[in-house]
Recover the amino acids of this structure.
């Protein structure tokens, strides 16, 4: 594991003049707009990097994009790795650990998620203030690598309170509705039944999705400050069930993308 992270990091270091400080992971349907905001981009495809897993979902490109956003050096994962694709949690953790080794201190994550909160509507954005991990595994399971972090990492603040405050202030200034809430991570790939919607709401979730938590656990363990935003692509109402289709999720995410681009670029500027 450590050797793999080192070899991947060395490979990337040889191709860069300056090292990134901010990491960004772009979720389903969220990509092109943010990539356009990157100056002097250098692109490395996942399959060129030793030990890097390759994204298998058609809507996700497998690229690392390096460049500048408001004079900050960024590394962007364009195409994330999902547990439902069959990757192990350790494979999903690898790019995050490479980011850490490159010097990344802040990780911004986006995702598409189902909306469980009856007071909210699809198309709106949620700022993660906490999560519930319902995935059957944890990227920190197995041998602990002290170079990254402790055996039992504290999880009282997995999402940086400082970054949340900053992002809420930016959203208010830009008149973007950003709702703080709890994200429940499920393994997928099947979507949820009506009974599962009820269950998720009952245990305190505002949104449900199939990503983000493995990456945040890995990053928080390694001492990176995390901030994550969900685009609520569909309403999950047990009493008014609507069939969920990937095309709809991708379309809804693309529609909300410009707001996400504004939030992330302004947040990076403020760092
Ligand atoms: N459930 C799980 N993951 C999702 C959903 C959903 O309804 N929408 C987007 N990602």
């Amino acid at each position: 594991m450590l050797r793999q992270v080192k070899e991947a990091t060395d490979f990337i270091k040889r191709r860069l003049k300056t090292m990134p400080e901010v990491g960004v992971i772009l979720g389903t349907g969220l990509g092109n707009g943010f990539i356009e905001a990157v100056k002097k981009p250098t692109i490395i495809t996942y399959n060129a990097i030793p030990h890097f897993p390759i994204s298998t979902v058609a809507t996700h490109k497998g690229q690392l994009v390096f460049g500048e956003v408001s004079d900050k050096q960024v590394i962007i994962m364009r195409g994330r790795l999902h547990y439902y694709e069959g990757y192990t949690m350790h494979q999903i953790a690898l790019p995050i650990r490479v980011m850490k080794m490159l010097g990344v201190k802040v990780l911004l994550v986006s995702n598409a998620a189902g909306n469980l909160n009856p007071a909210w509507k699809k198309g709106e954005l949620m700022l993660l203030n906490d999560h519930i991990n319902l995935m059957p595994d944890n990227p920190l399971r197995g041998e602990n690598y002290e170079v990254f972090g402790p055996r039992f990492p504290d999880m009282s603040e997995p999402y940086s309170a400082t970054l949340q405050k900053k992002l809420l202030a930016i959203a208010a200034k830009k008149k973007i509705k950003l709702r703080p809430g709890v994200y429940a991570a499920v393994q997928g790939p099947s979507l949820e039944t009506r009974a599962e919607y009820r269950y998720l709401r009952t245990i305190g979730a505002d949104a449900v999705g199939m990503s983000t938590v493995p990456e945040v656990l890995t990053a928080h363990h390694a001492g990176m400050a995390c901030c994550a935003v969900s685009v609520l692509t569909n309403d999950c109402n047990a009493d008014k069930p609507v069939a969920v289709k990937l095309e709809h999720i991708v379309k809804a995410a693309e529609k909300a993308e410009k707001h996400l681009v504004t939030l992330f670029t302004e947040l990076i500027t403020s760092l």
About this structure: The chain has seven helices and nine strands. Residues 2-270 form a domain with the Rossmann fold fold (CATH 3.40.50.1580). The two ends are 31 Å apart (CA to CA).
